[in-house]
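DM from R.C. (forwarded with permission)

"hey, sorry to bug you on a friday — could you get me a structure for this? deadline for the figure draft is monday and I only need the backbone to look sensible"
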Amino acid sequence: MPGEVRDIDLSYSGSDTRQRRMFVDAAAGAGLRTECIIHDRTREKAPTIEGFARLVGRSKLVFNNGWLNFNDGIITGRVAETVLAGAVLIQEIGAPLDDYLVPFVHYIPVANLAQFVAYCRVLVEDEARRDAIAHNAREFWLEHYASLRFWQRVAKACELS
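My reply, with the result:
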């Protein structure tokens, strides 16, 4: 949450698919403080909800990628978790996230490993820019996608309200 000590430059927690470890390892190789928790999403191996919340809450940046193939992208729950925790989302392109958030205003899209490392380094060093992106994303999310407001809009669009 905003105001927490953010002592992790970049984090990722989840399965080891879509070359996720390669991205985090590249950031660590560039001198960033990273934390990567790889697991198979089973209760026995995944962090607890509290542990995951602490990880994201301590992170300046959180990496995510969500695509199935070149034609099919997905948006994972990690997007909302990151935004609501006040961290900056670094999202590999391929997910339809531009339909819901504005690139470089609410999150940082990356197309390749070199771009990923460069953007991470800039954002870790530029606290004001990082805080502005995190704040913009959180405020936008709360205004447009908070549960009650979201379902009221869905009901109105369906002429149910």
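R.C.: lifesaver. Strands lie at 8-14, 34-38, 59-64, 67-69, 72-73, 88-92, 108-110.
me: no worries. Residues 74 and 102 are 16 Å apart (CA to CA).
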